[in-house]
Amino acid sequence: MSITGDQSLLKQINRMALVRAIRQQAGLSRADLAKLTGLTRSTVSLLCQDLINEGWLVEHEIQATGALGRRPTPLAIDPLRLALIGADLGVDGLHVVATSLNGEILASRSEAIVGNDAAMVLERLARMLSEEALSLRMQGRGLLGIGVGLPGGVDEAAGTLKFAPNLGWRDVAIREPLGAALARVGLDDVPIHVHNEADVAALGEFEFGEGEVPEPLIFVSLGIGVGAGIVAGARLFVGANGFAGEVGHTILKVDGPLCSCGRHGCAEAFIGLNAISARIAPGLSLAAIRTQLDFGDERALAVVGEAGRALGVLIQNLWTLFNPGRIVLGGPSCALGDAFLSAAFARLARYTEEAGLPGPDLRITRFGPLAVAVGAAALVLHKTIRPV
What domains does the chain contain, in order, with CATH numbers? Predict the structure, then answer.
């Protein structure tokens, strides 16, 4: 039986191989790309011209060196003509960003969520996305797509949020109603991708990281819930059913405190914001906890420090389990500051010292509270430049 390839897919694979190479090393010439990819010079030349015409690449000026002969033209990712949109449908509100292909934030907007009616929330999100998409088009930018990060288990293929316990949602269609709303304003040609919030945040750190990003990369999302996104082999690791990374429900203490999932001793029961709040004063907001910490409240400092040490234990477990090249911390709980994060770093340092091994590259997300929204934009880029 003979097997024939899909020529359009093959062309896209080759095109995106060139894009990835230039994202990795700006300034490569067409000749450089031919050597790196194994494609013929004529093929590279044709594909590069297509990519320049579409807004992916830009030619830089040739630097005069005084040497004889024609100088090769350096190429780079064009930051001006194409854009991505990412959205964070979070428990605390809606956040939408537009970014360049390099991850530069071009615009951002946020709105609080009032109530948790799914249809109303999605209607508001659709309006925000439509406004941002139309704004980009008014600026003359092409839009590659829209990504949405969601706080729970996601069926990516169906575009459905399977469950989001902190929103009280189950089996809610996301992509279909957003797509219908965008179509009503003439944006029916815009692809929409949905994924779990920690997963997209991990992609944001991976796709928009500086230089060569070490792998595996783990993004730990810290808020009411605790989750992780894992990138290995330039792909998300999602597990057999797409729900890998639920590290908030790994057990830190047998017969420990009751978790929202019904089990005892989960990481979330020690590290989650609701658990921290309940130990200080039930119902206390993140801002109120932060204020108490700033004023040196002894109980708040003790509880938050204990949660930070528990986070250190969780990080140590991820370190020994995955041997990651990098672990990135993000999410609302990072706003608790040194009382929380320094305790985690110190506990991890103790474990690495006891093991006599260098610890993982541990850092805080550089995108702050927009990590999920920026990551959702990175999801669009990821799907585009890695077609298989």
Answer: 7-77 (1.10.10.10), 82-201+372-385 (3.30.420.40), 214-365 (3.30.420.40)
